[in-house]
Specification:
By secondary structure, this protein is of the alpha+beta class. It is built from six helices and twelve strands. β1 and β2 form a beta hairpin. 17% of the residues lie in helices and 13% in strands. The strands form four sheets. The protein has a five-stranded mixed β-sheet, with helices on one face. A three-stranded antiparallel β-sheet has the order 3-9-10.
Length: 324
């Protein structure tokens, strides 16, 4: 779901009948739009079929004009929306992937992984709505997590080594929220522990002491992200959507953007600079792309691209962040 400034304004509904209900993000500051994207889309992106309807005030698509428009807010009030607000709000037809609540997790927080770090070759621009998917290809080279810290739904962070000795079924079970598969973590290593022969470990160009510090820093980052997700869920009554879709049906907004107000530091200022009326790779969002919060940085590689992250959710059917 596209974020708003307060939990009471989080619902985004499609226009129906004679009413237009639009979520207003009241975000300030926006550069002039240009046509070329900052970052080209990488690979094939999932698309959603969206029924996009025009603004019922008779002035065309919301956010496309230079005049104030009259809308009905989620609480039933009628108000004028300035052109600047229009550019800072999701246009009609926008929607999101499915959302779950904390109570939907019947497997238990200690048995459910929310997110981890992927290998270097799967790193993406941090504002890009792309994560791993729990489908028949997981785990595989292009759909897997790397050895490292994982954030669990109870807020804990545990280090898991991904190697040939891990039980794939038990590992997959850790990502479902209602699979009735308690005890999966204890079944990860049927032979008594990791073999240490992983090819997915990502120490980077660091010595042993630096690697230990990087592992600790990564764990702290995971805790802060997990706390942000939990606080979001308490405030909005559901976890954030993994992806927000534009009226073209393509992913426009990542969960990493929607949790910004819940992260440490002055990250809420980044949210004010993010333009929800255009895709993530639009020039209007270049400033945000180039100012990635520290919690999404690769602690094991100081020379990593400062705009890319290895932090990803597990998404898909049965997970805490379904996208289908």
């Amino acid at each position: 779901m596209f974020p708003s400034q307060s939990p009471k304004n989080v619902k985004l509904r499609r226009p129906s009948g004679s009413s237009v209900v639009v979520l207003l993000s009241l975000l300030a500051g926006c550069s002039e739009a240009t046509k070329e994207p900052v970052v080209k889309y990488e690979g094939s992106m999932p698309q959603k079929t969206i029924e996009s309807k025009s603004n019922q005030s008779g002035t065309g698509d919301f956010g496309s004009g230079n005049e104030s428009k009259i809308v009905v807010t989620p609480d039933g009030r009628i108000r004028n929306v300035s052109p600047e607000e229009q550019r800072r709000s999701p246009p009609p037809g926008s929607t999101t992937s499915k959302r779950t609540s904390l109570s939907d997790n019947t497997d238990g927080g200690k048995e459910t992984i929310w997110l981890g770090n992927v290998p270097d070759h799967l790193a993406v621009p941090w504002t890009k709505p792309q994560d791993l998917v729990l489908d028949s290809t997981f785990p595989s080279k292009d759909n897997t997590f790397a050895t490292g810290n994982f954030c669990f739904a109870d807020g804990s962070v545990r280090y898991i080594q991904i190697d040939d000795g891990i039980d794939a079924d038990a590992f997959r079970a850790l990502f479902t929220i209602a699979g009735n598969d308690q005890g999966a973590f204890g079944r990860l290593y049927p032979k008594g522990g990791p073999s240490g022969s992983s090819g997915q470990s990502n120490p980077g160009p660091l010595d042993r002491v630096a690697q230990s510090k990087a592992r600790m820093a990564s764990g702290n980052n995971m805790r802060m992200i997990g706390l942000a997700l939990t606080n979001y869920a308490f405030g909005y009554k559901k976890l954030p959507a993994a992806e927000g879709y534009g009226p073209d049906g393509k992913p426009w907004v990542s969960w990493r953007i929607t949790i910004l107000p819940f992260l440490p530091g002055d990250t809420s200022q980044l949210l004010k600079r993010y333009d929800f009326s255009v895709p993530w790779d639009h020039p209007n969002n270049e400033f945000v792309l180039k100012n990635m919060p520290d919690v999404f940085r690769d602690t094991s590689n100081p020379k990593a691209d400062p705009t890319k992250t290895r932090v990803m959710l597990m998404t898909g059917a049965g997970t805490a962040f379904p996208i289908d």
